[in-house]
Amino acid sequence: MAAPNSSALVLLECLVAGTTHRPGLPKYEPQLQIGQRLVLVREADSTYDDWAVRVLTADAEPVWLGYLPEGRNETVARLLDASFPLEARLNHKAWEEEWLHLEIEVLLLPSNQ
Question: Can you tell me the mean pLDDT for 19-28?
Fold first, then answer.
């Protein structure tokens, strides 16, 4: 796992929404590591949220963890639409009954990344 980039700008700290709806996530969860790099993918054709942004692992076969929360995702979605270099990092994980609580930070990377 790469060290977090100290010159990256933290744009958002939030929970990942929808983790209870991701099949296979409970089985994958032990592989999630604090500080792990995550990928953000715009879902412009979402019927539920005009600014939908998926959160996935950066694995060779990515695991879909959930979404950036509705109401906090518009700026990130617009930056992704404009091809700004964004990624996320996992800050915290914990089980709360059957809900996998994932806290992440969204980073704007330097343009040379």
Answer: 93
